[in-house]
Amino acid sequence: MSQGVSFFPVATIGCTAFALVAAVFMAPSFAHAADAVASPGCSCPDGVGAAVPKPNYTRLAPPLDASDEIAALQSVQFALTEVADGSSYVWHRSHGRLSGIVKPLRSHKDQDGTVCRTIVVILNGTDLTKKTETTACRLASGVWQISG
Q1: Which of 42, 58, 73, 104 is a Cys-bridge partner for 34, taking CB atoms 3.0 to 4.6 Å apart?
Q2: Domain for residue 56, yes or no?
Q3: How many domains, in total, are found in the chain?
């Protein structure tokens, strides 16, 4: 699967799953990582002796959007449902600005008997990679809800 967007309708994604992805890749340090790249000045004079700033072309990449967040969430839901403990699910968006890995580490039942899984989620943008480990539990509806 190249985009990670066709397995679950948006309505099936739990609200706390949005919090996970927002915390991992929609945080200002990730969504606007290109803005943080310093643009060193050029030592060439501009005709009056001042240095001319070098353009920062990394800002030309379009920012991540809601469809990127949905793709990441659907990839997490898919991996939690279909991928065995210790295996990884790798996905890529077709525009090339976002990809990720979801790796379920172990499954267990909580005190109520609900199936839960500990997972590692790694999201890669054009300039930044973020990694988080969390637990998700499966609701009666079949949707995985991220703890916390």
Answers
A1: 58
A2: no
A3: 1
